[in-house]
Design brief:
9% of the residues lie in helices and 48% in strands. Strands 1, 2, 3, 4, 5, 6, 7, 8, 9 and 10 form a 10-stranded antiparallel beta sheet that branches. GO terms for molecular function: glycolipid transfer activity. InterPro entries: LPS_export_LptA (IPR052037), OstA-like_N (IPR005653).
Length: 189
């Protein structure tokens, strides 16, 4: 089964790649246990589906995923002893529905829904998506990231100048710790 950071890292990768540039796209992959809690859990072993419902919270290391509903789909007919137990194997798809929040010490992402596809290594967050890193913020209707390549894009629900609901970003320059020296008279910078 893929770990929470493997699933959630795409969200952080989008924030890092789209907001902070290539240098910040290096993400650590935690290997700690995943702790999932919810009000209810339903399992359909024949279908290899687990549904976590009501105040779902998944934690691993310093990453936290919160949502109203989390459905996890596992590969059917897996080898004996594989992750997922019984006839179920590795995670193939995960759906988070209703007020999806992903938070690490560096990034915050919110959307209405999220879909992770393990076979294509893509994560799609939809519905009033807000991705933030520090003071930098991106807003859009849909955000897609390839977890292997780190490539991603965000789209809005409208196109054209002066239209509401276009992709919007607010970026703050990094504060330099070294003050700039003024240029000497007659010298170019």
């Amino acid at each position: 089964m893929k770990s929470l950071p493997t699933i959630a890292a795409p969200i952080a990768a989008v924030v890092a790649v789209l907001l902070a540039g290539p240098a910040a796209a290096q993400l650590s992959q935690g290997k700690g246990p995943v702790d999932i809690a919810s009000d209810q859990l339903e399992t359909a072993n024949n279908e290899c589906v687990s549904t976590w419902r009501g105040n779902v919270e998944a934690l691993q290391d310093n990453a936290r995923l919160r949502t109203d509903l989390l459905k996890m789909y596992f590969q059917k007919g897996a080898r004996p002893g594989s992750a997922g137990g019984g006839n179920c194997g590795d995670l193939i798809r995960m759906e988070a529905q209703g007020a999806v929040y992903y938070v690490t010490p560096q990034q915050r992402v919110h959307g209405d829904n999220a879909l992770y596809e393990a076979t294509t290594d893509t994560l799609t967050v939809t519905g009033d998506v807000v991705a933030a890193q520090g003071q930098n913020v991106l807003r859009g209707e849909r955000m897609v990231i390839n977890t292997k390549t780190g490539e991603g894009h965000m789209v809005g629900s409208a196109q054209g100048r002066n239209k509401p609901n276009r992709v919007r970003g607010v970026f703050y320059p990094q504060q330099s710790s070294k003050p700039q020296q003024p240029a000497q008279a007659g010298q170019r910078r």
